[in-house]
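Class, look over these structure tokens:
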Amino acid sequence: MVKPLAVVTNVLLFMLFLGLAATVDVREFRGKFKAPRAIIAGMCCQFGIVPALGYLSTQLFRLDA
């Protein structure tokens, strides 16, 4: 069963991301790909360092799945 609070929070989160995406200037966004060092660093952190730290913290604090 779907809880009303879950629906409301998902809708609000969607609206937040939609608002953030709407403020992005397309020309500036395209310009970021000309020097992709920051994008590569962010992807390495997002998909490498953050998951590794999450795993290590669950092992360190002996958290359940």
Summary: The mean pLDDT is 94. DSSP finds three helices and no strands in the chain. The CA atoms of residues 32 and 39 lie 8 Å apart. The first helix runs from residue 4 to 22.
